[in-house]
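Table S2 (continued). Query chain:
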Amino acid sequence: MFRRSLHLSAMFLAVACVFNVGSPAVADITDKPLEASNGTSEVGAYLDFQIPALQFAQRGERRKRRSGSRKKKTDAGSAVTDHEHCTECEKLEGFVLPSDISDEIRLMVGKAKGNMNKAVGIQVARGGIETGLEADFINDGACMEIDSEKWAIDYSGKRPWKAIHKGVDIPQPNGTPIRAIASGTVVGKFLNEGNRKGIEVMIRHRPEQTGLAYWTYSQYTHLREMSPLGIGERVKLGQEIGKTSNTGKMGRRIRRDALHLAIIYSERPEWSNDGRFVIPKDAYWMDPNAFYRPSGPYDSQSLAALPEDQKKVSTPYMKHDGSFVPTETKRIWPYPCD
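Corresponding output:
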């Protein structure tokens, strides 16, 4: 009778420990067998109940610790919590906290887990449509052109979800320097581990730096390695910002070496960086070809409606000797031309 009572006591203790995984009671579980009041060891009861309870509790505690401290990599490669913004950006002009940016704009730039159809709808409404524009390099410049990966083409066949191509791809040999398409300030650097974009740099351009009436943001992805440029560093027109490669999570085929160039613009100066995306306030997508137009319109809907004889864009560039065509341009193609 005494042994049966002790056995039940051990069972009660084990069950109590299981239902108090997060409480201090877990710390009282040891590897030492219980002893009866007459000095005999109740090893059988201990092995049957307390060890499984200990293992269960320890597994629960490990899961709790993992879920409570999940980290991600930032542009600098350091671990931060999922909701930590770019603290280096706080001192920069126009920066606001991520919470000041609407959910609609978050979906527009790519924060779309579980909302891909809605995100694409927003992207289309905010400029993500084909315009038919083509680069026409001034003075017949011999520049590397956009390949088949054109602006806003349907990418649903290349993804397991609905998607559009929010940029253009310009192929170049691995290691080819990429040039800043306008003067500006570095506002984003992302490793994008496990992401198709690969290593990324983003530059913010003030209206006077481009000659446009907007704050514009140029995005360069698939870089070979992280740019040495720091957050907040000012870059000049034509300055090297990184090197061409094919980094990023691959799809069903091997990606060729190319720059993915994208442009976002806004009439407002505010923007944020949540550690994964640069998100301008009240932003729109711009066809990168439109970035080089000397005058408006710049919105994709109006550009798509232009007659065919207005689809070619006189595009300025930098030559290999460092000179610009035309000389006083504020915007250039991201690769030098012959």
